Amino acid sequence: MSQSVFTAKQNDAQPSPRKRQRARKACIPCRQRKRKCDVQFPCSACSTYGYQCQYPTDDGPSAPFVDKSHASHVSSNSPTSAFGHSPNKAAKIERPQRDETPESPESAVDQGILDPVKARYMGLHSVMAFPRNLGLEFQSANPPRVHSFAWNCGIRPEENGSSHINLKDLISREESNGYLKVYFETVHPVFGILDQEIFSRTADQFWSEATGHSAFEAILAGVIALGSFFSATLGHPRELEIVQHAKSILEDPVISRRVSIDQVSAWVLRTLYLRSTTRPHMAWLASNIAMHLAEATGLHHETDAVVLTTTDPSSQFVPNESGREQARRLFWSAWMANSMISYEYGRSSTSLNNITCKQPSLIKGDYTSLLISLGQLIPRESLDGGPDLQHTLPKIQQIPDDHPFISTSKADLTMSLYRHHRLLKRPTEKREILQIISIGNVATQAAYQLAQENKFWWNVLCTVFQYVCVLLAIDTSESLAQVQNAMCTLENIAGQLQTHVSTEAVNTLKILLRDSMTKKKQQVQLLEAADSDLAANMGTEAGEMVNVDINWDALLDPWYVPTLLPQEFSIGAGPAAFYPTV
Known about the structure:
Largest sheet: 3 strands, mixed
GO molecular function, one term: DNA-binding transcription factor activity, RNA polymerase II-specific
Protein name: Zn(2)-C6 fungal-type domain-containing protein
Oligomer: single chain
Number of helices: 24
Distance between the termini: 91 Å
Keywords: DNA-binding, Metal-binding, Nucleus, Transcription, Transcription regulation, Zinc
Pfam families: Fungal_trans, Zn_clus
Structural class: mainly alpha
Radius of gyration: 33 Å
Number of strands: 3
Shape: globular
Order of helices and strands: HHHHEEHHHHHHHHHEHHHHHHHHHHH
């Protein structure tokens, strides 16, 4: 940038006679040290203290981002991640340089700071950032780095890394290729957390080179495990060992204390596998870990919402628009999984402060954004005061049923909303009941379609089971008319699965169905007993009952008049005392 440009900017920033204006572009050293910059090159402060004067190109929210992938310094013996960076380098979406001085106390509370070398994000008020802030305030030539100074007494060494088997010893490259194909055909369209091209390139590097264990290996193992799972009976015989291998890498002390976006991706994959195979508690834990790692890497913030700790070009990795879009998809997919699992399970989800990450774009053939839009409809109980069926159900219906998993997920949210609504003893309008039935019927067909395709997502069985429960709970003629079809679908899916869980689900519903019928029979018997007592009082001398034809529509009309009743029940007759009069 030429000096004439800086001179022009300086002229633009000249103070008016009445109001002092702030220079729009301070140099980077002055920003870091919170000094007034005269926007010269070099500026007077840098000339006085011997700093290297340097200006950013642009620091506004609309600053153009360029691809600087060469700055990531990918080593020859370390595979790049699914985002195209080295796992041990700047595994973070770089932010444009901003002034480290908050403009107001209110903004400082929510503002964060990011170390682009170690991909660590934290609040500006944190114990790790405070020494550096003091150094900048004291105009130190070399302010302290963001570091956990005196976090503990340091009388014990940190844990050593764990020993791991090699993924290549569990599965061959040829075998893995088939499962990768299944994953990108089945899982990727609705959870598009990986860039397929970059992932494939990094996987090729993993198989062709001798590398140490990294978070990307956990991603690769997670993808293979999910591909194996959705291959149904054709799954790999060592699938559980591959899952355990990914877990051991993620829990390795050496790897886990070096936060990276790859760890977020790997934990999201683990969440999906656990949600599909094991108990709710395990999936809920994994989803919360994924969210905490997303915060630790700053994924919850947009590109202009954080402060950088360094301006060293060698540590910066500024992705293009595609990279930023992929980061948004990863964060919101992790958020969606955590929110949905927590809401279904009845536990708290991970709540992050001041989320500035934008919603991902809608891409043809990719339904991730639709799933995220569905997650946005999950109520926050502490803020919304519970579910609002009247306004939420139409929004759920507006989300297109472009993929069977989207349809079943819509029903999952609908059933969760109804369960919460019913717990609050709120009345359910007929229109809302019809909306629930409509969403549930579409989901039942979608679940059957997925079962026929051997794509056994967790809600293939769960959605239909919960739908029948909700139909029995609503207990109206409209809802009970749908029970037969839903039960037949569930039995067909269970017959295809032939697992303990599916058999247990069918038997449980049969018990509920029979108990519901028994309760209704008892109620009918009570009505019949009441009718018998009434007949004894209304009978003739011969003890015979009078066959009375009552106009029930008129009787239940609050505006009826006595002349609408049969003559036997006219006002003045003895039995008329049982009926109201106008």
